[in-house]
Amino acid sequence: MLLPYFTKHLVEAGCDEAGRGCLAGPVYAAAVILPKGFNHPLLMDSKKLSADQRKELAKIIRNKAISYAVQKMSPAEIDRFNILNASIRAMHKAIRRLAISPQLILVDGNRFHQYQNIPFECVIKGDDKYTSIAAASILAKVARDQYMVRAASQYPHYGWETNKGYPTLLHRDSIKKYGISPLHRHSFKLFPHNTQMDMFE
73-124, pLDDT tens digit by residue? Predict the structure, then answer.
């Protein structure tokens, strides 16, 4: 069972990103403020759910959340700022779009940059520990997957409808055969002989 909050008396926003380890496409981030008592039996780290479960939970989260926002940073911005900074910037953009300013930010992972003067807590594997971070992981993942499926119809060679831009063997082989698309991240090692990015989820 996920924990419903870090501090009971503060308005908390959970933040997470999706697509950090991809070779192509934007990185997405979500910020979610949930009611203190909210939970759902399927709510967990988005990577442990099926695509259909994520879509169904995303509807529930959007309906039940006090406030939520999803934002992205483009491949060009990822190349400019690097993937860590682009991910954090996407989180900042999402927090900025919340209808309510949080009093505490819960972030999945171990790195974050202060947003305004709001306190924050980095939580390793936070999407498997706190409801708000898990909810953010689901909204970010669903939004990004939908983007990559749409992009696959424009750039059909890379299998994005299934791999969503992650470094699968098919994706790398397609880059070698067809070259890169405008959505590929130039700062990443894109070709099949390199497995540097395979460590990411």
Answer: 999 999 999 999 999 999 999 999 999 999 999 999 999 999 999 999 999 9
Count Cβ atoms below 10 Å from residue 10 Cβ, excluding itself: 13
Q: In what order do the strands lie in the sheet with 104-108?
A: 67-73, 27-33, 12-18, 104-108, 120-123
Are 201 and 164 a contacting pair, CB within 8 Å? Answer: no
Q: Which runs of E-coded beta strand occur in the chain?
A: 12-18, 27-33, 67-73, 104-108, 120-123
Cα separations in angstroms, 198 against 67, 100, 156, 166, 195: 34, 37, 22, 8, 5
- Please list the residues that pair with 29 across neighbouring strands: 17, 71
CA 40 to chain centre: 20
**Beta carbons within 10 angstroms of residue 118's beta carbon:** 14
